[in-house]
Amino acid sequence: MRIRVEKCPGGIALVVPGPLAAQVGLREGEAAELDVTGGQLVVRPGSPATLAELLAGVTPENCHPEWADGPPAGAEML
Predict the structure, then answer these.
(1) By its UniProt entry, which Gene3D superfamilies does this protein fall under (predicted)?
(2) 25-53, pLDDT tens digit by residue?
(3) 45 to each of 27, 48, 73, how far by Cα in Å?
């Protein structure tokens, strides 16, 4: 099956037809794994990132600073 390869910010995107994506369980917005095996590009459904994987990406450079919010100012105490 031939598909389109399109330009996107930071790389290219493969347009996978819906029926083909459904056959392997790929869904829009979900994680996928991409590998090169034997000179071929292999795409398969992936699992969402674990908390440990997400936290491994936190650095002092991308961590937001703390901020003071003051005393309750509305219905927060209900």
Answers:
(1) 2.10.260.10
(2) 888 888 888 999 999 999 888 888 889 98
(3) 8, 10, 46
69 occurs within a structural domain? no
Residue 50 in 3-state DSSP?
coil
- Facing residues of 32 across strands? 45
Gap between the Cα atoms of 66 and 72, Å rounded: 17
Range of the domain at 19: 4-63
Whichever domain contains 34, its CATH number is 2.10.260.10
Domain count, the chain: 1
- Pairwise CA distance, residues 13 & 66, whole Å: 37
Nearest to 23 by CA among 45, 52, 54: 45
Q: Which of 41, 44, 20, 19 is nearest to 30 (CA)?
A: 44
Residue 71: inside a domain, yes or no? no
